[in-house]
Amino acid sequence: xxxPAILQSPIPKRRPIMTPRPILAALTMVLAALPGTALxxxxxxxxxxxxxxxxxxxxxxxxxxxxxxxxxxxxxxDIGSAVLETVLFxxxxxxxxxxxxxxxxxxxxxxxxxxxxxxxxxxNALSALLINGAEECxxxxxxxxxxxxxxxxxxxxxxxxxx
Length: 163
Prior knowledge:
Layout: E1 6-7, H1 20-33, H2 38-44, E2 51-61, E3 64-73, E4 79-90, E5 95-106, E6 111-119, E7 126-138, E8 152-155, E9 160-162
Helix pairs in contact: 1-2
């Protein structure tokens, strides 16, 4: 069986208008001010020593379905690289494809947004997404199961997220 292709963010890297820390601080303040948001709730309580991944949005564009995730590493140490084996299911529940989502570096206790373009399908053609395991989970201070043990998965879309 051939190794599935790793999907990486389709958004080209641009020169930032602001440095990342002020952007993150501003985003955190705005999200914390919104009642009922998952990030605001997590900002008030510790998420625990596990990875939390939320499918935040799914939007169809000319290239296919763009899936946007919010990932928070609740471990006490950074994850240097997280590549998750992901299975996409079509509307009838059949496997549409097996692929790898490269979440990259996930610093401890800081939210990160990652987007993946799934070519050749529309978002409404997907019914579910399964995190099948970690193809790669690298951390100098954590075990190999840091990306999967106790993983918390949720979705704000019509696409179910399982693990």
